[in-house]
Write a structure and sequence with these properties.
Number of strands: 5
Shape: globular
EC number: 2.7.4.25
Helix content: 40-55%
Enzyme class: transferase
Number of helices: 10
Catalytic activity: CMP + ATP = CDP + ADP; dCMP + ATP = dCDP + ADP
CATH topology: Rossmann fold
Distance between the termini: 24 Å
CATH superfamily: P-loop containing nucleotide triphosphate hydrolases
Order of helices and strands: EHEHHHHHEHEHHEH
Strand content: 5-15%
GO molecular function, one term: CMP kinase activity
Strand order of the largest sheet: 2-3-1-4-5
Subcellular location: Cytoplasm
């Protein structure tokens, strides 16, 4: 890893607001951005489209010839929210060899002037030398309503019971998988956004960032 290029990581569970804040901070700093979940969803979409059996040996073979320059959000945003894509991406994240290959791919996003990386193991595994590590959290009910709002905005059908069950399953899988489970590193800044507005989260985050870098 190029330790001369600064990295700020944002980890946390689903619907904790990581992606939104990651993009806003990256724009404010004019830094590069890595949304790790997008990589796994991109891989999931291609696998589903090509009917590749979700067995790790098949995934590894598929990954060897995968060109990540094809990862363009504007091309795949319409299908990414589909539940089957999210579930497949979550399953792929439990494969150890797949994670090792994608670990290298993710570290290649580290470019000047700096990188904002969000996911579930950005500060613990991918970029353990990050200058600032955030861990976002919010209670389950708040995250469920955020997910419902997000899906409605995208014109996708959803309801409280279904979203609640999906987030519970995802939390269980993320927190208890053997490889790179979700947890806050000892040096992470814990930010509970349950009762915070978006503006308040941004203000709090930028306050911590300004302590480390000159803006």
């Amino acid at each position: 890893m190029n330790n001369n290029i600064p990295v700020i990581t944002i980890d946390g569970p689903s619907a904790a607001g990581k992606s939104t804040i990651c993009n806003i901070i990256a724009n404010k700093l004019n830094w590069c951005i890595l949304e790790s979940g997008l990589i796994y969803r991109f891989l999931a979409i291609l696998i589903l489209q090509r009917n590749v059996p979700i067995i790790e040996k098949n995934i590894i073979s598929f990954l060897k010839n995968l060109d990540f320059s094809l990862l363009k959000e504007n091309k795949i945003s319409k299908v990414i929210p589909l539940q089957i894509v999210g579930e497949t991406a979550s399953k792929l994240a439990t494969f150890s060899e797949t994670r090792k290959i994608l670990l290298y791919k993710q570290r290649c996003f580290r470019k000047k002037p700096g990188l904002i990386a969000e996911g579930r193991d950005m500060g613990t595994v991918v970029f353990p030398d990050a200058i600032i590590k955030f861990f976002f959290k919010a209670n389950l009910e708040t995250r469920v309503f955020r997910r419902i709002k997000q899906f409605k905005k995208m014109g996708l059908p959803t309801n409280y019971k279904k979203s609640l069950e999906q987030l519970k399953i995802r939390d269980e899988r993320d927190q208890n998988r053997l490889i790179s489970p979700l947890y806050a590193s000892k040096d992470a800044i814990i930010l509970d956004s349950t009762n915070m507005t978006l503006s308040e989260v941004i203000e709090c985050s930028m306050k911590e960032i300004k302590k480390k870098i000159n803006i």
